[in-house]
Design brief:
- The chain is 7% helix and 35% strand.
- The protein is built from one helix and seven strands.
- The strands form two sheets. Strands 1, 4, 6 and 7 form a four-stranded antiparallel sheet that branches.
- The protein is globular.
């Protein structure tokens, strides 16, 4: 429960793109539930000095085009969320540069609720290695055995 961040090292072939990240809780039966999301326009990647690894702050006071072909770190702030992962469930990360207009979570949103696309094709190459540690920073907490038993007895 709380906020989080996605640190993504990427190379793009245009001066701008969108990064749209959604976290899903997948149940063993295949159903999914959206947990949270994060958004960042690449040209607004600048971080405020108050940022921390798990809580980035983007001032959005200027637009700085990306030099195509360079590897940059993009830090997406994840909206506050809370979720309990049940046994057998899986955390899945979906990263895209556009939003589906009509999936089970976006179908009810008004047309002006979506981020504008950059208007041209963009090739994205995501890096995850020792030199480019792309990662999620999430606020996991663990229940004690007694808390878990109490919660389970209340759910019955």
């Amino acid at each position: 429960m709380g906020t989080g961040a996605a640190h993504i090292f990427a190379e793009i072939d245009q001066p701008d793109t969108n990064f749209i990240l959604r976290l899903w809780d997948y149940a063993p039966n295949g159903r999914r539930q959206l947990i949270t999301s994060g958004y960042l326009k690449a040209s607004h990647r600048e971080l405020d000095e108050r940022s921390t690894e798990g809580s980035p702050i983007h001032p959005h006071t200027r637009s700085v085009p990306v030099a195509p072909g360079t590897i940059e770190e993009y830090v997406l702030r994840l909206y506050p969320f809370a979720n309990t992962f049940r046994p057998g469930h899986a955390l899945t990360v979906e990263l895209s540069n556009g939003e589906p207009l009509a999936d089970e979570h976006n179908a009810l949103l008004p047309p002006d609720a979506f981020h504008l696309p950059v208007g041209r094709p963009v090739t994205h190459k995501i890096y995850r290695d020792a030199a480019h540690p792309s990662r999620l920073v999430l606020p996991f907490t663990a229940r004690t055995r007694a808390e878990g038993q109490a919660a389970n007895s209340q759910a019955d």
